[in-house]
Amino acid sequence: MDKLNKGLEPFTFYSRLHLSELTGYRATTLVELLNFMREVSDACIYHHTHRFLQQHQFLSPEPPNDFAHWISRALGEDTLGEMLASIDIIQFCTLDELRQAMIKEIEAYLKKNPRAKKKFANPDEEFHFIKAISFFLPTQYVVHNLKEFAQALEVVTVDSIYFHIFEARLRLEKGVNDFSYWLETSVGENDLAKQISQLDPYTYTMNDLRTKILKLINKRLTKSN
């Protein structure tokens, strides 16, 4: 029987409120899109790569990349659109790394296909850059050990799960989700932390992700009984 440790620090579950704000930047060509992608804020890159996931957390995973969708739909550059859509977001630890990967793909494509520079989107199909504004709020759920953590995880909102899995790792540049970080550094559950960090959250709905994490935790709790 493996003993469960009390956390060195309690874990507070946070939730989030989300707003979307127009930046005023609009692109009608690939070159314009590329230039704006270089200068817009990380909050803008985040919005256009996580918008679907934020707005439709109960639906199927694999959220579309706004840049890829626009390039295919408005400019008819399906090959480039597919290239951007296939970028695996989970491999990046920061939004700037993700930004640079997309920029590199577009630059290489334009170099090989200079004709693409001359394509214009229709006036009603311009790409409008939008930035994500989030507010983080502590919830009533503060836990001190793995059992309490599991109990809270069963009832917190999907907004809370989203914050600790997606926002913490990528937007706040922690490099790892909050759950894994606390389990490893405070509770000493290194194996469990690793199992959770190895999950690809982009392939689950929020509730499916909750179920998957709880399954891993309950398996660990069973060993401690």
Notes on the structure:
The chain has 225 residues and is of the alpha+beta class. It has 2 domains: 6-16 and 138-224, no CATH class; 17-131, no CATH class. 51% of the residues lie in helices and 18% in strands. It has 10 helices and 2 strands, in the order E-H-H-H-H-H-E-H-H-H-H-H. Strands 1-2 form a two-stranded antiparallel ribbon. Helix 6 packs antiparallel against helix 10 (206-224) and helix 8 packs antiparallel against helix 9. The longest helix is centred in the last third of the chain and has 19 residues, at 206-224. The N and C termini lie close together (6 Å).
Q: What key phrases describe this protein's structure?
A:
225 residues, alpha+beta, 2 domains, two-stranded antiparallel sheet, 51% helix, 18% strand, elongated
Summarize the helices and strands and which ones pair or pack.
Layout: E1 6-27, H1 30-39, H2 42-55, H3 66-73, H4 78-85, H5 95-112, E2 127-145, H6 146-153, H7 158-171, H8 178-185, H9 190-197, H10 206-224
Antiparallel strand pairs: 1-2
